[in-house]
Amino acid sequence: AERGAGSVRATATHCPYCSLQCGMAVTAGDRPATLVPLDFPTNRGGLCSKGWSSVELLDHPERLLRPLVRATPGDRTSPLVESTWDDALGRVIEAIGRTQRTYGRDAVGCFGGGSLTNEQAYQFGKFARVALRTSAIDYNGRFCMSSAAGAANRAFGLDRGMPFPLSDIAGADVVVLVGSNPADTMPPAMQWFDAGRERGAQHVVVDPRRTATARHAELHLQPLPGTDLALANGLLHLAIAEGLVDEAYVAERTTGFDDVRAGVAAYWPDRVERLTGVPVEQQRRTLLTLARAEKAIILTARGAEQHRSGTDTAQAWINLALALGLPGRPGSGWGTVTGQGNGQGGREHGQKADQLPGYRSLADPAARAHVAAVWGVDPDDLPMPGRSAFELLDALGTEGGVRTLLVLASNVAVSAPDARRVISRLRDLDFLVVSDFFLSETAELADVVLPSAMWAEEAGTMTNLEGRVIRRRRALDPPAGVPDDLQLLATLAERLGAGALFSGDPETVFGELGRASSGGTADYAGISYARIDDEDGVFWPCPSPEHPGTPRLFTERFATPDGRARFLRVEHVEAHEPPDGEYPYVLTTGRVLAQYQSGTQTRRSRSLSLIAPTPRAELHPDLARRLGIAQDDVVELATRRGRARFHAQVTDAIRPDVVFAPFHWGGGSSANALTDPALDPTSKMPAFKVCAVAVTRVGGP
Ligand code: SF4
After folding, report:
1. What pTM value is reported for the model?
2. Are residues 160 and 302 in the same domain?
3. Which residues form the 4Fe-4S Mo/W bis-MGD-type domain (predicted)?
4. Tens digits of per-residue pLDDT, 460-487?
5. Separation of 347 CA from ligand 1 center, angstroms?
C-alpha cells in the first residue's frame, strides 16, 4: 500500500469522488500532496479531471481547521466564530440533552452521506440508535440510489448496484444505458465500453439529451423524461410479439411473468411512440439488437430512477432483462450505475431510516436481536424505522419533527429537492450541527460547524459500484486537531456516556461491522483489511475468511426465498407535474463533467472552475428562437417552487420540449430550488428528473 520511488513515498488509495473509486497514489507525508493514477481494476491508470484535481483541496485556504460557533449562542444571525473543540462539543451535547428532555429522543436527528466510509456509515447508524436512541436518521443516498435499490431488492432479493464486475461491460455484445452518462460522470469507465466497441459491440443510449455517451453510441433514443417505464414495457411487448422471450429461463428461474405479459399487452409500439416520442422503428431496432445478442447488459442510472415512479421504472427494465434471460448469465445482466463514492456501502450498514447493518430490516425481530447482540444492547431498546430523507427534512422544527440535527458529509441546502423549502426548515431547527471540510451552504446555517479530515487523511473502506470492498488509506496527517468523522462520533458518544461502545479505530470498527453484517445479504464477515490489500478488493457477499468473495451474483439462484427472480407488473404513470400553460416545458436536472454533487468541494477547485465556472441551462435552438434567447444569455427558470438563473447553452443535443439544468450550484443558480419533492411510494425518491418549468430571458451574456 505504501510504495517508495527514490525519495518519494506514496500511499495507494482512491479518488474521493464517484463510485468508480479510481485507484491513485498520493505522496505520503508531505504537503502540498501530489498524486499519480494507479492501475486499479476499475480505472486501469485512468483518472478524470475531478480525480486529478482532488489533492488541490487538501490545502485549500477555505478549509475549515477549527470549530465554528455562533458568537451569540442561539442567535443564528450572529456570525460564526472560531472556538475550541471543548466549547463546540459542549454546545452540541447540551443541545442534544435539552432537545431530548423537552421533546423526546426522536427530536434529535442524524443525516448522513454516501461519501462516508463503510466504517463511518456503520458507526453513524449505531450512534443514532444506541447513543441517541433516536429513530430519526437517513442519508443523501435516498436521493441517489434508493429506487434502483428498491427494485433490485424486490426482484432479486438483494441490491448490489452491479451484480457483476465492471469488466463484463467489455465482453458484452450489447449494452443498453438508460439515463446514464458515464462519459461525463466517470470517464475512465468508458475504456470498458470502448474495448467492447473494438470487438464490434453495439451500445444503445436512452437519454433525452445527446450526451457525450450518446454521441458514441450506435443508437440513441431520446424519450421524454419520465417515460422510460413505458419504453421498457414497449420493448417487452415487442419481445413477446416477436417470440424472443427466453421461455426456458423464465420457466426455470423466475416467477410472475404471466401477469407482466398481460400488463405489457397494452404497450403497442405506436402507443409507446406517442407516450415517449421514440419512433417505432427505433424501438424495434433496440429490441432486436438486444434480444439477438449472446451477451447483453442493461444499465439504468439516475435519469431513469429519480422519478416518482423510479422503483417501478427500474423494475420495468429488470422485467425486460429477465424476459431475455440476462440476469445471472455470465457476461450479461441488469445493473445500476451507482453515483456517490460510497453510494453502495453507504446504503448497506445502517444509516438508512429502515435498515440495520448487513442490509437487514430494522423492523425484523431476528435482525434486531442479531445486531443488538453485536452492539451489546437490549434489542427492545433499538428504535423502530423513522422518516425517509425528504420527509425527515420537511418535518424539521415541526411538532413531532426533529429539533436538533447532526449532519455529516451532506449539503442538503443544495442537494435536496425544493431546496429553498429545506433551507427554511433548517432555519426552523432549534440547533443544527454540521461536520464538513468547507463551509457548505448547509454549514452556513449551523449553530456549530465541526471541521473534518479529508479523504487522504483518513482510513477506512469503501464499496465501489461493483460491490468491491476497497481500502481508503491514510497518506497524510490531518491538520492538527482535526478528526475524521469516525473519531468525532466516538468522542460524541463518550460525552453522551456511551463511549465504551464506540471505537474511533477504523479496523476495529470494520471487524465489528463484519460481525454485524454476518448472515445478512451484504455479508462482510470474511473480509479483512489484509485481504483487501492482497486481492485488490473483495466482492461481497463474503461470509467467511475462506470464502473467495462474489464478483458475479445470481449465477445459480437469486437471493429470494425460492431462489427465483420476481417479475412484477408495472404501469406507466404521467409525471407528477406535467407541463401546462403556465409552465410549458419539462425541466430535467443532472451533472456536468467538472463538478461533483453539491459542489462543496469541486466548486472550490481552481482547475475545475476553469472548466465549468458557471452553471449553464441547456435548451434547443427552436425553443431559444421562440423565446428570443441567444447563446450565453442569462435565463430565468421558474417552477411552482422557485426561480433560478443560468447562462443559456443553446444546443440541438436536447429535445425541443426539455430544459436541462445542472444541480451542482446553490444560491441564485440552485437547480434544486426548482425541483419537485413528490416522492416515489416505495423508495421515497424525489422526482428530481421531471417538473414543469417556464423559461424567460432576463439579460445578455
Ligand atoms: Fe475516477 Fe470518479 Fe474520481 Fe473521476 S471522479 S477520477 S471517474 S473516481
Report:
1. 0.96
2. yes
3. 8-60
4. 999 999 999 999 999 999 999 999 999 9
5. 20
